[in-house]
Design goal:
- The chain has 335 residues and is mostly helical.
- It has one domain.
- 69% of the residues lie in helices and 2% in strands.
- It is built from 16 helices and two strands.
- Strands 1-2 form a two-stranded antiparallel ribbon.
- A hairpin with a 2-residue loop joins strand 1 and strand 2.
- Helix 4 runs antiparallel to helix 5 and helix 10 packs across helix 13.
- It is globular, with a radius of gyration of 20 Å.
């Protein structure tokens, strides 16, 4: 091959080194921008409740995607009818499933502690892969899941009472936040079947617009509560919707398009770091002491579940995943 042909071939290779580096960069930038949502939600919870915060935020998210689609209609994915059911499932998991619980948990937990809950998602995804995808759950993976679970329980028991409401000190109430990593793990597994076929912006848009529409019953109450927000609150709400939601979710799907589920979700370990820095900058509040031991247990346990899975993945020659027939149509299950 001529030297002049090599850059052309590399530029168009779907899994070239440059593409992989860009995917890692997208995942990292995603986590950095996602971190602002936790102190932003804490600020808004002083004036309105969790359902109102999530509903207003995702109404703005949907509006952003709708404007994007109006300007660039070619971004709207042309999905077969059966795949719209996958979009609906992803929308439910990504919006009410992943968001309502963690915002509600911030009544009980400070932003850095609440940010530790999503890091449990890769361990849950590992368990789901064993239960539903037939992957072998090794002893190190099971031990890692147990260690991460101990860290989560420690955060919930000791950290409850550090949130927005001084009266919300119940670990059981804070435990509602565990719905978030459960939903996000499922969302990451399911949406992977769409990211390789359609533009990430298009998939993110239809998923989040659909997910927002599932909250339609909460629209009147949320719009009525909007009058209690001041100018600074609205600035934060818009930032959370755009820089904190639209941008990172598109970046997340870009990463999933070129990286495995386990490699992409591993970046969630950094969410508490990002949330802590944003909380310190926005609210002037340092992380609680329990964040370090609890966070280390969660991250160490989750890392153990992913390390064994990655090692087995390297030992097996990569083969194209086979489509599987499901009630939602043909779905290509991620490795």
């Amino acid at each position: 091959m001529a030297a002049s042909d090599r850059p052309i071939r590399e530029a168009y290779a779907p899994d070239s080194r440059r593409t992989t580096i860009a995917a890692y960069g997208s995942a990292l930038l995603c986590i950095v921008t996602w971190g602002m949502v936790f102190p932003g939600s804490a600020r808004l919870l002083v004036r309105i409740d969790a359902v109102q915060v999530v509903t207003l935020r995702f109404m703005l998210v949907s509006l952003s995607f709708a404007i994007w689609f109006a300007l660039r209609p070619s971004l709207i994915p042309r999905l077969p009818r059966r795949q719209w059911l996958i979009v609906l499932v992803c929308g439910v998991l990504a919006v009410p499933g992943s968001q309502l619980a963690v915002v509600h948990a911030q009544s009980y937990l400070s932003p850095p502690l609440a940010a530790l809950l999503p890091t449990f998602a890769p361990a849950i995804a590992c368990l789901f892969a064993a239960l539903f995808l037939g992957e072998h759950l090794s002893l190190p993976q099971a031990a890692g899941f147990a260690v991460a679970l101990v860290g989560v329980v420690l955060i919930l028991v000791v950290g409850a009472g550090t949130g927005v409401s001084i009266h919300a000190s119940s670990p059981v109430g804070a435990a509602i936040g565990l719905i978030t990593p459960l939903s996000w793990a499922l969302y990451t597994l399911v949406v992977r079947s769409l990211t390789g076929r359609y533009p990430p912006i298009g998939i993110a848009g239809v998923v989040y617009i659909t997910g927002t529409l599932t909250l339609v019953a909460a629209f009147p109450d949320a719009l009525g509560a909007a009058g209690r927000l001041n100018t600074g609150d609205w600035i934060w709400l818009v930032l959370m919707a755009t820089a904190g939601t639209v941008v990172p979710n598109v970046l997340w799907l870009v990463s999933l398009r070129h990286l495995s589920v386990s490699r992409t979700t591993a970046f969630m370990y950094l969410i508490p770091v990002s949330a802590s820095l944003w909380t310190l900058a926005v609210l002037g509040r340092a992380p609680e002491a329990i964040a370090l031991p609890g966070g280390l247990l969660v991250v160490a346990g989750v890392a153990l579940t992913q390390r064994d899975r990655a090692a087995r993945g390297r030992a097996v020659t990569a083969a194209p995943p086979a489509p599987v027939e499901t009630p939602m149509g043909q779905v290509t299950l991620p490795r």
